[in-house]
Write a structure and sequence with these properties.
By secondary structure, the protein is mostly helical. Helix content is 79%, strand content 0%.
Length: 261
């Protein structure tokens, strides 16, 4: 119950504090503008190059919006505390570490899901791409599994915030690379074999494939193995992230570098 209280109360309080220094009238258009224009950019670029359909780029880049939020949400849950010089105080508490940082990240990730859904809806209207109800439900299921995998990977990135100078550098690098290697904008079969191998070990790759199958009217039976792989990737990164959090916290305490830049 204590861990649940830390997760819920800490997360809500941290998210409310965000709007003490940022105006929602700036936050909302900035948050929505990026994914909307990214989707439209790649969709019209694909039209010009005669590569794939609008639906292909719409689904892929809507999933990317969820991924970026998962990476930065978990990353800043730790890196932001360090930069604000409050990390040592948090780690001095006996609170469960996973509940502590996940509670701070989940509100941001939920915001990302809402933003991705809004961008998907707006761009579907602009691009005149229509989905049936069962296709939207399939996309929602694939997005939920992908969000879990991206959040788990974000925990690994966030753990680096215990020692690294800037988590955003890692998140930007990975997020930019995944525009290519995840299959969001380039069909996987057109990528070199070693790139596909790297992508299969990262979150989102299998989730996007499953989303495209389900978004095209396919059944969960056809996409089930891809969703299972995405969930497995997420579980592996979750275990790795928890281990990294423990090890790097111990090393930070031992070397007194938790607040050193």
């Amino acid at each position: 119950m204590n861990a649940l209280r830390v997760f819920a109360v800490g997360g809500v309080t941290s998210y409310r504090a965000l709007f003490n220094w940022i105006d929602p009238w700036i936050f909302v258009p900035q948050t929505l503008g990026y994914p909307i224009f990214e989707i439209l950019f790649f969709a019209y670029l694909g039209r010009f190059a005669s590569v794939q359909s609008d639906r292909f780029f719409l689904v892929g880049n809507a999933f990317m919006a969820i991924a970026i939020t998962g990476f930065f949400g978990m990353g800043q849950a730790i890196g932001g505390e360090r930069r604000s010089q409050t990390l040592a105080t948090l780690l001095a508490s006996p609170a469960n570490r996973l509940a502590l940082f996940l509670g701070r990240a989940v509100p941001s990730m939920l915001t990302g899901v809402v933003v991705a859904a809004t961008a998907f809806t707006v761009c579907s209207f602009v691009l005149r791409v229509h989905f049936a109800t069962h296709e939207l439900l399939g996309l929602a299921a694939a997005a939920a599994v992908s969000s879990f995998a991206c959040t788990s990977f974000g925990l690994c990135l966030g753990s680096l915030g215990l020692r690294g100078r800037s988590v955003s550098l890692f998140a930007d690098t990975v997020g930019g690379s995944m525009l290519l290697i995840s299959g969001a904008n380039v069909p996987l079969e057109r990528l070199p074999g070693f790139v596909r191998a790297v992508g299969s070990g990262l979150p989102l790759t299998h989730g996007i494939q499953a989303g495209r199958i389900l978004g095209a009217g396919g059944s969960f039976g056809a996409a089930g193995h891809l969703l299972a792989r995405e969930a497995l990737v997420g579980c592996c990164y979750l275990l790795l992230g928890v281990a990294m959090l423990r090890v790097l916290e111990y090393e930070g305490r031992r070397s007194a570098t938790l607040e050193t830049f």
